């Protein structure tokens, strides 16, 4: 799993906003997929960027997460995104606070 630094996390949201703007404002109908090919991005990846930027706020807690994790959180029902979850370790965290990196003690 890739963990982005703050700048990388913010970039995910900015890329999503820009992709959505191009799709809705800058291209003729039917040109979006061709344009994505020209920038070497597949449709699924573009959809993930857009979903994240539409569904989540670009706050400090999510800036350290990568696209795949942010996408998983963005597809959760809104009522579940801020619910505390009990981990196997006994810790209690919200989904955006979780990582796959083990904590050394």
TrEMBL record:
What segment(s) does the record annotate as region Disordered? Answer: 82-105
Q: From start to end residue, where is composition biased (Basic and acidic residues)?
A: 82-97
Q: Which InterPro entries match?
A: DUF3102
Task: Please state what the protein is called.
Answer: DUF3102 domain-containing protein
Task: Look up and give the organism this protein is from.
Answer: Levilactobacillus angrenensis
Q: Which lineage?
A: Bacteria, Bacillati, Bacillota, Bacilli, Lactobacillales
């Amino acid at each position: 799993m890739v963990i982005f630094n703050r700048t990388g996390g913010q970039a995910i949201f900015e890329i999503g906003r820009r992709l959505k703007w191009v799709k809705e404002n800058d291209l003729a109908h039917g040109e979006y997929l061709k344009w994505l090919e020209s920038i070497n991005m597949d449709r699924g990846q573009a959809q993930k960027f857009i979903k994240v930027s539409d569904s989540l706020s670009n706050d400090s807690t999510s800036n350290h997460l990568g696209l795949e994790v942010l996408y998983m959180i963005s597809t959760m029902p809104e009522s579940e995104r801020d619910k505390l979850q009990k981990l196997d370790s006994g810790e209690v965290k919200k989904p955006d606070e979780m990582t796959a990196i083990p904590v050394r003690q």
